[in-house]
Amino acid sequence: MNKATLGRFFEDFGIGETIRHATPRTVTAGDQALYLALYGSRFAVQSSDEFARALGYPRALLDDLLVFHIVFGKTVPDISLNAVANLGYADCRFLAPVYTGDTLSAQSEVIGLKENSNRKTGILYVRTAGFNQKGEIVLSFVRWVMVHKHDQHATTPDAEVPQLPAHVAADSLGRVCPVIDPAQWDNALSGSSHRFGDYLAGERIDHIDGVTVEEAEHMLATRLYQNTARVHFNALAEKSGRFGRRLVYGGHAMSLARALSFNGLANAFHIAAINGGRHVAPLFAGGTVFAWSEILDKADLPGRHDVGALRIRTRATRDLPCTDHPLHDATAERPGVILDLDYWALMPR
Amino acid sequence: MNKATLGRFFEDFGIGETIRHATPRTVTAGDQALYLALYGSRFAVQSSDEFARALGYPRALLDDLLVFHIVFGKTVPDISLNAVANLGYADCRFLAPVYTGDTLSAQSEVIGLKENSNRKTGILYVRTAGFNQKGEIVLSFVRWVMVHKHDQHATTPDAEVPQLPAHVAADSLGRVCPVIDPAQWDNALSGSSHRFGDYLAGERIDHIDGVTVEEAEHMLATRLYQNTARVHFNALAEKSGRFGRRLVYGGHAMSLARALSFNGLANAFHIAAINGGRHVAPLFAGGTVFAWSEILDKADLPGRHDVGALRIRTRATRDLPCTDHPLHDATAERPGVILDLDYWALMPR
Amino acid sequence: MNKATLGRFFEDFGIGETIRHATPRTVTAGDQALYLALYGSRFAVQSSDEFARALGYPRALLDDLLVFHIVFGKTVPDISLNAVANLGYADCRFLAPVYTGDTLSAQSEVIGLKENSNRKTGILYVRTAGFNQKGEIVLSFVRWVMVHKHDQHATTPDAEVPQLPAHVAADSLGRVCPVIDPAQWDNALSGSSHRFGDYLAGERIDHIDGVTVEEAEHMLATRLYQNTARVHFNALAEKSGRFGRRLVYGGHAMSLARALSFNGLANAFHIAAINGGRHVAPLFAGGTVFAWSEILDKADLPGRHDVGALRIRTRATRDLPCTDHPLHDATAERPGVILDLDYWALMPR
After folding, report:
1. How far apart are CA C42 and CA A74, in angstroms?
2. Model confidence pTM above 0.90
3. What pLDDT, in 10s, does the model give residues B51-67?
């Protein structure tokens, strides 16, 4: 028997099952520096211990999406090694700040299973939680993936599909962010004078810049997250695969779009929740990523006078500048759009 | 109104104006490791806490050029997003040592403006200062850039061009370097027995090795410095740009040349000042960088018996080995030379 | 005289000579993060401070091969700058755990010299030791390299070839690993329930995954180790060299194979010794690396009930998946095999 594992197939999952994932991971200043080098992020609370301390944090925060990618990465060997596709995310909530020195671990619960009519694949729904070394939950999200069956004739349980919220309720967004002192927020250092009050629902922002992706970059990033999904690394196998080449991890596009969004959303310093996200089309090395955002909604946080929440829809495109906010009145399934992300960000008042 | 910014144009600057730049940045061991991976630097004071402590430092120093690049990077969104070209540096002085854990910020003062006769562009002179978290100035330099006007018909102030020193005076070089104990300097560990007394003005050194640059590398580096200049990142836009491809950040060539110069200048452990620097020709991925140096001058530091200063002119070339110190008797504008850097380095006696 | 050095040639070495190498190096969380991004390693003791502490370590360990590469890198400027080829390793023993914050230095003793009959080259044998800042030896290994003579007519001493052990004796493997508490070893977090007792001599494991190597990646890695061997960096010179292109540092393939081996050997948390290693064929960027392992032997450690030692032979291949453990009954010199590594790993009971 080969002690190496091919990963689980659709028929190997059962509703209610909880999977504790390997490998726990202490996050460090090394991770922050690499994240910065990979995406060029410029949000001040994640870049400067001094800026963070002035607001009441003990030191600079870890980038929220770095936390997301690390927790997500842990689930891959157990959940999606035999995935055909990542279909979506929902109800992703950031629940506690994460700092360098914290150790992240993850577990997932199977909350839905639905075999496809071809009997070759099925849809698997899992809720994943990320924890810090104190056992506090720092992140919770649902994702669903289409997974291969190993044996087409294996019987599978009756379909069970979870109810998922269309978006995260604004009144649950505060936990990730201790009360800060907005009077200490220095607009010059943060890069923008636009605060919560300056944004309007319906407003659109072209983030202007584009960044070209290299094979070495997305592989460095995906390995940093200890994400082992094969399609990102093995050019030999992918040559005869679906796309004929390595596929960029979808989260890489999320982080590129988030970093580009600094130009126009410099004070959106924290991601409090991801309402939903779809990788509309694949991204490959050599592609140049652009992004634009639309303010979908604004919300007060109960009892909080320091920060408000902006609901933002960000689309990333491939080889398509966003000067005219392309496709803003259409469904996103058009050539050029690769990511459609709906999230809540916190911004000082 | 798009809340994203296109950056300032020539007519947006006024003499005497001071600009505080975003984003403050805590430098860490992560930055040092990445800098090492990007350039392969081997100077012992920056590599080893123990070596540094033996000399009297609290721990290893940050690489001087890493400090320069980070401070420089902060100025880009405000100063040179619409630059046609970086024309030069002068009077760059390193004024305090920088360690991991320090937080760097930057501000610039407009000290010169001169519209070009075509009225489409102008030359902007700024003095930039970098600070640590205690408010101490760690770096000061002047640079001048050719910047686009947004509106060709905009009126601009009368030309004002600052007087700049041809080189930094030797008696101002000591501040970056606390008194060290040269008796504790271990030549075997530092990689060379050649001390200050062993170098002669006029001496030439071929640094022998060459290193080929990859797109992923220069983009990782430039993002690490949070430098957002578009020409380095956007292959799609640059395809129809001046060079038809992404341009490598000029500072990347400076750091490559400095790392190569270890072979021959291993004990030149500190850059105290940059007298001037010109990016003579562009560098692109795929090019192989070589370097050679000439000792222009030697200077004692007032009241200091531990270290002396070497004035060094280093030229970096592209795809041109430097065995014969090419172009040493000519102006530098010849095929192959990409960088002409004149700096003061400190060396133990 | 050029103060830059071309490195030593065969006739410059003498039996018994000890060489202290530059540059001492403090290892940090930055190095660990980069190592992770370069190889995607998932061994829990090196990834998580908490996992390591539960076992009795003060915090996460540095990856053993990262220690090896850093110590090896220091020897390159003195030993192998003029090497034709690295011929082999032997008697490599890891002798003390290494943690972030430790400062590594290295020295080598010349233990063998044998001129080749062509009088143009010779075989140089050195024993290299790596030390931490307390002067404790952390690593010891022998390597032999074929080195150019500078002057074909130079006389060289009588041939002297050291006796080297065919493999490291099991009773000397314990020093690198303080006694741990295997009851605290969490199989879910470590990624496998297979402990020492579950492996049998003769067992074979296909590590399944493949990873494609990029130029930027192997150069970043090799510079991180401050390894200056020219063949890895200079595409211009290598165009007219032996292979027509840059050669990947052999240690890069070792670390790729080790990271791939997690799938099947997740609890083999420590490399205690390398019995021998050969770079059977060169690796170049664009190649996809696979690996498979064979358990050669098992050994108890004297007086130790916490861990046992597995002797593992791992072959890495290029563009050749290992489903059928290719070449397991043949000599390794076949197309596709690039690395043949024989090592002792520790595993909890």
Report:
1. 10
2. yes
3. 999 999 999 999 999 99
